[in-house]
Every structure is written in C-alpha cells, then in structure tokens.
C-alpha cells in the first residue's frame, strides 16, 4: 500500500463516529461566528444573469428520457437557469431572529463548502473567461479574461471545496461531508442541464493541479490563509449545438495561465479558533494526478417510469431536507418505493448517464413502513458482479432472498434482496447518531462502498466514492419530492456499529453515507420566504 493510501485510511478510521465518542470536532460553536456561506471576490467585473425563477414546461417525468428534451440555445437566459437550478437559492427560512438561505444543492449543516465556476469559451455569450458564481446575488464575477483561441467548446463548470468552512462545525469528519456535497452538486448540475436539453461530461482525467490552475484557486495571494479552495472536478456542458468542437485542455489551460486575473476572495469572516491539520493531510494524500479514465456506460433503461406531472423546475426548487418525519405515516406505496430503487439503479437514466465508472455503492435498506414488504433489512446491490462479494462480506445469517413480486415483471427486474425480518426502527435511529429521522421514516438506508480494492493503488478514489454516494442522495431527494414525500441525507452515523450489524469486518466494504425517506412533518413556526425577493427589491431601488 502506498503512503498516500495509508494517510487516507488513517483519516477514514480516525474520523469514524463511535458509540463511545464522536470524531474530533470543535468543543463549542459560536453561531454568531459562522463562516459566510457566500464567497465573493472583490475587484471583479460582474456579469448579471437574467432574473431567476423562470419555469420551463419540462415535466419531472420527462427526465426519464432526457434525449427527447429539445436542446435550448446557449445564451445568457439558459446559462443563468443552469446555474440557478444547480447551485442557486431555493428559499429563505426564518425562525425567530434567525434567517438562512437554502439552495437547490443540499449541504451538510447548510454550510455549503462547494464553490462553482463557469468557464466560458463562447464570446457570443459574454466575454470568454473564468467566472465565479455567487448564488446569493445570482451573478458571475469575472475572475479571468482569457486570451488566445479557445472558442467553440461552449461552457464548462468547475467545482471546488472550501474545506475549512465545513470543518468550522464538523471538525475532522468535515472532509467527508465536503465530498458528499460535491456528489450532490454534480447531481444537481446534471438535472439542471437535462431540463435545458443539455448533457454533462465529467472531465475526470484532469489532474487537480490543472483544475486549480484553470480556476485560479492556486493563486494563493488571492485567498485568506485557511480559506483557500481545493480543486474537485471540471464538467463540460454539452449544449448539443452544431458548432461545438472538441476540447483542447492544453489550450484552455494556457489561455487562463496567460489571461488577466482580477479580484481577491473576501474573508469568510469567522474567527479560526480550531485548526484541523488532518484535513490538509488527507486532502494532499487524496489529490488526483492525470489519469486515464474509462467510459463505462450502463445500457439498461430505468425499470419503472416516473409518473410525476409536476415541472422539473418546480421539483428542483421545492427540494428540502425533512427535519422530522411522521412516525405514524401510512405505508409507502410499493410502486413509489420501487420507483425510487429504479431511479438509484445505474441505468442510462440521468444522472448516472454521466457517471463513467461501474457502480461501487450498494444500498442496505431498513424498511420500516412500505406497503407489502415485511419490515426488516434488505439489500440492493447496484452492480450484479458484486452480489457474491457482498454476500461473502456480510453476516452468514442473512437470507439473501430475492424479493419477487408476482405478476409484475417490472418489479422483479430490480435486484432487491430480503436479508432479515424485524423491526429495525430503534436500531436505525441509534446507528444514525440517535436521530429520529432514521426511524420515523418509510425507510432509511446505509450506502456501502466497495472500498479498498481500488483505493490501494489510487488514494483519490476515496473522494469519488463519496461523490457517488452524494449523487445517489440527490436522486433520492428529488424522487421523494416527485412522489409527494421528502428525504434527508445523514452524514452522522456510527460507522463500525453499522459494519457490525451487517457483519462487515474489514475494509473490503465500508459504509459511507446514510439516507432516510418518509412523510415529512412541517415545523409551522418556521417561515419560508422566496429565494430571490432581495434581488427584485434591489432592482426596484436601483430603477
Ligand atoms: C452530506 C449531507 C449530510 C447530512 N447529514 C445530516 C444529518 O446527519 N442530519 C440531518 O438532520 N440532516 C443532515 N443533512 C441535511 C442538511 O442539514 C441539509 O441539506 C441542509 O440543512 C440544507 O437544507 P436543505 O437540504 O433543505 O436545502 C445532510 C445533508 C447532506 C448533503
């Protein structure tokens, strides 16, 4: 095992929550000192985007067949919509004196470590260059005016993470959450692009150093100490325009290297009371070099179609995490449950159409309240090749009985296995850091990764496994909204207790994320306010 992988595994072990003690985090939090969730660069020209909130008539169910959605032209309106639906604000919440923004992409603790950049190579859209997206103001900050010939490749999106912003609350475990958030953001981007008839290509070959150079986040003088950004991924948006040509990464990099750079990142303001050097260590160890990457493509169609007649823009903007579930909910209809399983299965359906690797994440599901299914523990291996490995790695007592719903071939196409009957509510709650959201729902689940096989030689795979979890989570979030219920990501769980329940004894498999889905209970004391009323007010004042 190489030294970097050792560092990554050490981080992973050390940041496990255990029943006896949580992973290391701050001993106290000063909420008035919370880092600014909105990064801005002072000294940049601003590119305004059209007023957010536009509705398109694409239905959520239409996203089952993204290839049938007509491609919109690449212009300012549609670029703005892409950014809004992927990373923009979805609402403000108010409770007593507190007020906070929610976004289309969720984030652990709502701290939003993910930053989004747009690289424009099309001078007809606006000046070619590298831009930072400010979700609060729904505008772009021009960080770099590029020089040279890079036209014809449309737009790219770059994602980065400010690890410290997340670590402020979660300490050492925060690096994991930053990776989950990238997965969610990628999912959000894929859905947003699909509504416009566009697709997303992950430029996964790119080394982190080149991503940092292209986005200008390696310009250390432009950032406050500790508040720097770490590179994650570049995505090419394919707008299916006739004139789009293939990307020349070297030319793109050269044009940003020789371009004119503007602005400096404002301070995120909070006092840096605690330091978490292990996050820098793991981040360095899991940095990605240039790699050859496959184009693995699932060919299966989703086994069950969505019947949601709401617009996709509506579903995206209404997506929320449930904070409480109705523990007395009527059982979730079996068709809805199976649709969600179909949606998270790797098919040619979005967002997995952009995922270039065979699935590494499998689901162990605590079924609490689902029509026609015995409460108990179930498994959904997301790749048939891993079935035997999963069986060998988990408790010998598990039944592994394929759930056959007679008279319905569609359902039997989904590889759901019954492992154990019983009431797992209390256990699910205990495993998820005693959170009732894991027990009061219709079902909750653990995402179990095929962990060590590739990691031994490629430490950066650690991040990608969390990204895949986030991607699955984003599907669950949107699918739950589409059937009129709600879900919540759960980053807090007792790692090894989960492994013990499943019988997992080593690093071949590890649980990396939890999720829960059910009927939400609204907190009526909390007010929901429109996402961008503040922009309309500013426009009115300025006119
Ligand atoms: C990676 C991740 C982990 C999360 N973990 C928890 C959790 O353990 N418990 C919880 O109540 N909510 C959890 N959440 C939900 C976030 O708190 C929520 O996304 C955030 O407050 C923003 O709210 P929204 O999802 O309604 O936009 C998690 C979300 C993400 C993306």
Entry summary:
The protein is an alpha+beta fold. It contains 16 helices and 20 strands. The longest helix is centred in the middle third of the chain and has 22 residues, at 174-195.
Task: State the main characteristics.
single chain, NADH Oxidase, 7-stranded antiparallel β-sheet, 16 helices, binds flavin mononucleotide
Describe the structure.
With 543 residues, the protein is of the alpha+beta class. The protein folds into 2 domains: 32-275, 3-Layer(aba) Sandwich (NADH Oxidase); 321-518, NADH Oxidase (3-Layer(aba) Sandwich), CATH 3.40.109. The protein is built from 16 helices and 20 strands. It has helices at residues 3-14, 76-87, 163-170, 174-195, 208-215, 249-257, 277-285, 312-318, 334-344, 387-393, 409-412, 425-431, 452-455, 461-482, 495-502, 533-542; strands spanning 41-42, 45-48, 89-95, 98-103, 114-120, 129-134, 139-145, 155-161, 199-202, 230-238, 260-261, 264-265, 361-367, 376-380, 401-402, 417-421, 443-450, 486-490, 509-518, 527-529. The strands form 4 sheets. Strands 2, 5, 6, 7, 8, 9, 10 and 11 form an 8-stranded antiparallel beta sheet that branches. Strands 15-16-14-13-17-19-18 form a 7-stranded antiparallel beta sheet, sandwiched between helices. Helix 1 crosses helix 7, helix 2 packs antiparallel against helix 4 (174-195) and helix 9 runs antiparallel to helix 14. The radius of gyration is 22 Å and the shape is globular. It starts with a helix and ends with a helix. 50% of the residues are buried. The mean pLDDT is 94.
């Amino acid at each position: 095992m190489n030294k970097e992988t050792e560092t990554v595994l050490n981080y992973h072990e050390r940041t496990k929550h255990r029943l006896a003690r949580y992973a290391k985090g701050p001993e106290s939090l000063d909420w008035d000192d919370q880092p600014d969730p909105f990064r801005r660069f002072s000294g940049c020209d601003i590119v305004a985007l059209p007023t957010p909130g536009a509705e398109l008539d694409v239905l959520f169910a239409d996203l089952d067949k993204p290839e049938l959605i007509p491609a919109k032209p690449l212009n300012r309106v549609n670029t703005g919509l892409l950014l809004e639906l992927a990373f923009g604000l979805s609402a403000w919440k108010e409770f007593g004196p507190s007020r906070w923004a929610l976004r289309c992409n969720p984030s652990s603790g709502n701290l939003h470590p993910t930053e989004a950049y747009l690289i424009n190579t099309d001078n007809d859209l606006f000046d070619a260059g590298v831009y930072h997206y400010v979700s609060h103001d729904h505008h772009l900050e021009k960080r770099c005016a590029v020089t040279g010939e890079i036209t014809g490749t449309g737009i790219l999106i770059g994602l980065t993470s400010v690890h410290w912003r997340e670590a402020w609350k979660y300490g050492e475990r925060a690096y994991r959450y930053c990776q989950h958030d990238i997965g969610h953001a990628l999912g959000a981007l894929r859905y947003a692009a699909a509504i416009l008839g566009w697709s997303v290509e992950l430029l996964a070959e790119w080394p982190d150093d080149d991503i940092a150079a292209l986005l200008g986040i390696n310009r250390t003088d432009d950032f406050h100490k500790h508040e720097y950004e770490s590179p994650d991924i570049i995505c090419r948006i394919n707008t299916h325009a006739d004139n789009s040509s293939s990307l020349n990464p070297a030319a793109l990099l050269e044009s940003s290297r020789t371009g004119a750079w503007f602005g400096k990142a404002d301070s995120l303001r909070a006092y840096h009371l605690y330091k978490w050097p292990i996050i820098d260590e793991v981040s360095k160890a899991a940095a990605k070099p240039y790699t050859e990457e496959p184009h693995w493509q699932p060919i299966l169609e989703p086994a069950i179609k969505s019947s949601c007649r709401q617009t996709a823009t509506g579903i995206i903007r209404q997506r929320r995490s449930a904070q409480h579930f109705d523990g007395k909910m009527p059982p979730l209809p079996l068709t809805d449950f199976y649709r969600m399983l179909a949606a998270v299965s790797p098919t040619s359906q979005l967002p997995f159409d952009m995922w270039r690797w065979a699935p590494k994440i499998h689901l162990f599901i605590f079924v609490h309240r689902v029509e026609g299914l015995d409460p108990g523990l179930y498994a959904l291996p997301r790749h048939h090749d891993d079935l035997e490995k999963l069986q060998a790695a988990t408790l010998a007592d598990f039944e592994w009985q394929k759930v056959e719903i007679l008279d319905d071939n569609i359902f039997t196409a989904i590889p759901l296995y019954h492992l154990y009957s019983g009431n797992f509510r209390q256990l699910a709650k205990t495993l998820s850091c005693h959170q009732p959201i894991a027990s009061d729902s219709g079902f909750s689940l653990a995402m179990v990764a095929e962990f060590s096989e590739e990691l031994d030689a490629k430490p950066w795979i650690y991040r990608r496994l969390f990204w895949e979890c986030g991607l699955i989570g984003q599907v669950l979030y949107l699918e739950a909204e589409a059937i009129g219920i709600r879900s919540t990501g759960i980053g807090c769980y007792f790692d090894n207790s989960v492994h013990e329940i499943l019988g997992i004894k080593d690093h071949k498999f590890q649980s990396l994320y939890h999720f829960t889905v059910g009927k939400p209970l609204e907190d009526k004391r909390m007010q929901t306010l429109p996402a961008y009323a503040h922009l309309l007010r500013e426009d009115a004042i300025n006119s």
